[in-house]
Fold:
Amino acid sequence: MADAVFLAISVLTIGSAIAALELRSLIYGSISLMGTLGGVAGYFLLLDSPFVAMFQIAVYIGSIAVLILFTVMLVRRQLIFIKVEDKRRRYAGIGLMLIMMMSLGAIILSSGIKTIQTDAPPVDFRTIGEDFLTYYWPALILMALILASSVIGALTLARREDIENDQRTS
Amino acid sequence: MTNELVDFVIISIALLAIGIYGVSVKRNAIRMLFAIEIIINAANLNLVAFARYIPNSKGQTFALFSIAIAAAEVAVGLALIIVAYRMYKNVDIAEFRSLKG
Structure:
């Protein structure tokens, strides 16, 4: 059975995930998305993987959530609060969500996953670092290149050519 | 350890279902990005949970890769949303029908 900390983190995570999608204001929505990401970091701590939890907090809450907040602030004010959606589509979406939860839950509960228990000590983060630098080093370098190219791509996409041309002519 | 693997997997399923609801219903591009983030987090939670209960370090390694790639994806996605917003003055994806340069 789950303990109290797990239940508290579950309420925080699921509740703020729903709030992130349903709150009227996009700013409050992005703040509740931070709650979801923080809750998942809490699960990582419960799973004895503090290294992944720290990475999650640094990357998700530290950079992604702040990036989303700044993007929301760049959008016009009326668009932040407006909520256009189809009623029928919404009910269909809720139905899809429930069907998915129930069918996947039934599959998981009927599988043998419940019997899995472990007494093994948690994985040391030194092992993860060793994995990164020995067996997975090509993937690590590729990841660095992907990150660099995505940052360059984002900057190129967000560049404003009209302003640059104005500055050049003046 | 009182928590079982099945608890984490059920939470992960709930997050995945909420994310799929968001992707299929919402029309605001930024909110769809929120939903995609929630789905990615559900996947990471699964990776780390299985890595803990089937004692193995590979799951955590892949979760770290996944988090880094998600950061890149969000940066590009937000830049695309800003470009589309500048063109259409809107973040509603139903307005982005004609992709002209």
Notes: The first helix of chain A runs from residue 4 to 22. Chain A has two domains: 1-82, 125-170. Chain A touches chain B through 83 residues (CB under 8 Å). The CA atoms of residues 104 and 110 of chain A lie 10 Å apart.
